[in-house]
Design goal:
This protein is of the alpha/beta class. It folds into 2 domains: 30 residues; 99 residues, 3-Layer(aba) Sandwich (Oxidized Rhodanese, domain 1), CATH 3.40.250. It has 7 helices and 5 strands. Strands 1-5-4-2-3 form a 5-stranded parallel sheet.
């Protein structure tokens, strides 16, 4: 009975296997691109020990509502046009943050294309930062 189900629905099983493989491979593919991930406590270590710079890729409105102290606002949609603001940080470790961590992945790929060498994504984004009870700067 179960074998019949598997045979008749082989395409569903194949789809599941492909989706699981993509989910499991994503961190390795990012690492191959020169992008690593770091948790909130690792961010503080990178900033303190290696003078890392936090680049927040949230929208300007989100950034003004709350952001990591000393983070620079570099909205994801404007990365290519803000070269003067960010190029001076190419030789430093750069930590990309956003609200949840999803936009940071796409933004990190753009920074790789711009020639940044040490790129980290804040795992879980600013939400994870707040969850660790780390300080946030609020402008509103």
């Amino acid at each position: 009975m179960e074998l019949d189900f598997l045979i008749q629905n082989w395409y569903l099983i194949l789809t599941l296997v492909i989706i699981l493989a993509l989910l499991l491979l994503e961190p390795y593919l990012l690492k191959l691109s020169g992008i690593d991930s770091v948790g909130p406590l690792g961010v503080t270590q990178l900033v303190n020990r290696e003078s890392a710079v936090v680049l927040d890729v949230c929208t300007a409105k989100e950034f003004s509502a709350a952001h990591i102290p000393d983070a620079l606002s570099v909205p994801a949609s404007e990365i290519g046009t803000l070269s003067d603001k960010i190029n001076r940080h190419k030789d430093k470790p750069v930590i990309i943050s956003c609200r949840s961590g999803n936009r940071a992945k796409g933004a990190a790929k753009k920074f790789v294309k711009l020639g940044f060498k040490k790129i980290y994504i804040l795992t879980g984004g600013n939400a994870a930062w707040e969850k660790e009870n780390l300080p946030m700067t609020r402008n509103s």
